[in-house]
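stage 2 :: seqdesign
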């Protein structure tokens, strides 16, 4: 359940003085035939009874009175604490709820995508769902403002809760990890590039965009770090052994929102060179097992007796859509 904590307003805020209840002057009824001492006792009881009535009645008009403590102002925002953030998630797919949100006859809710997936049948009570909007939760989702989870890494964006998931998938401040195995540095991509240049400059092979760089890959190398000299962007040339040879691919340590870069690799001894072209994949940390798509497969015999393979790598800055398919040219 969600718990909403609202702080008390400062003096001068809240409802105006005209809306606050006013105490009535004690109303005394004349008494007759009272013995000495009873008149004062009766007046005191009447006075107490009228005070109790005032806690329920407002000016004798039958309406409930306002509390003495000022409530939250409805003319502006107020702080809210949610102890269970999952209350704003779809109970079926567990993704953040976004409008439109639907509810069944018994009040169970679901996002529009899930309503079609479950054939408009509520999984909780089997009543129809997907036809009645839940306007109340939609209004709450529009009103709730949250910060990005990457705020500690420099993101200052504030958004409605329903847009939080989409923003964080493309947030430029997503944390990236240092590719050096013994280093625990985590930060935004720009901070990582500066960290690597300051702490691990000699651990990378430096190159320039649109220029060919020679890379010597040993059969036992799992990866080689490359850093562009201009903007300091880090790349990982990964290699893993398979039955038919070595799988080689190039990835860029960068947020997902950063455009992918085009690269080409020439591999193999003279006379049997293999050329491969593809797009870098954006990753946030080095992986020992690179993806199974977009790779160059080099036969094991290409490494020679020394176990080394000479590569010519060129990474280019091109504004090309991700829809292009990787291809191998022999």
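stage 2 :: out
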């Amino acid at each position: 359940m969600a718990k909403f904590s609202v702080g008390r307003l400062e003096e001068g805020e809240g409802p105006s003085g005209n809306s606050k209840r006013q105490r009535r002057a004690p109303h005394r009824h004349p008494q007759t035939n009272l013995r000495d001492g009873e008149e004062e006792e009766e007046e005191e009881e009447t006075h107490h009874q009228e005070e109790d009535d005032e806690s329920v009645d407002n000016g004798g008009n039958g309406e409930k009175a306002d509390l003495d403590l000022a409530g939250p102002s409805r003319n502006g925002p107020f702080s809210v604490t949610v102890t269970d953030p999952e209350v704003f998630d779809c109970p079926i797919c567990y993704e953040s709820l976004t409008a439109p949100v639907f509810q069944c006859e018994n009040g169970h809710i679901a996002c529009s995508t899930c309503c079609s997936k479950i054939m408009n049948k509520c999984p909780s009570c089997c009543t129809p769902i997907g036809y009645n909007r839940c306007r109340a939760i939609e209004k709450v989702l529009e009103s709730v403002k949250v910060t990005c989870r990457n705020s500690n890494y420099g993101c200052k964006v504030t958004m409605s809760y329903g847009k939080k998931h989409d923003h964080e998938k493309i947030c430029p401040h997503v944390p990236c990890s240092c590719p050096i195995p013994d280093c625990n540095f985590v930060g935004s991509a720009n901070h990582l590039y500066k960290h690597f240049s300051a702490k691990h400059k000699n651990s990378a092979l430096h190159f320039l965009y649109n220029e060919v760089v020679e890379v010597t890959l040993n059969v036992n190398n799992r990866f080689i770090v490359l850093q562009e000299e201009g903007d300091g962007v880090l790349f990982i040339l990964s290699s893993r052994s398979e039955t038919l040879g070595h799988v080689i691919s190039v990835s860029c340590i960068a947020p997902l929102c950063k455009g992918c870069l085009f690269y080409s690799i020439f591999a193999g001894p003279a006379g049997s060179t293999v050329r491969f072209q593809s797009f870098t994949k954006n990753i946030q940390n080095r992986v020992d097992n690179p993806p199974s798509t977009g790779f160059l497969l080099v036969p094991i015999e290409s490494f020679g007796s020394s176990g080394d393979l000479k590569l010519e790598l060129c990474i280019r800055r091109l504004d090309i859509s991700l829809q292009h398919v990787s291809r191998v040219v022999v």
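stage 3 :: structure notes
- The longest helix spans residues 38-54.
- Residues 271 and 330 are 11 Å apart (CA to CA).
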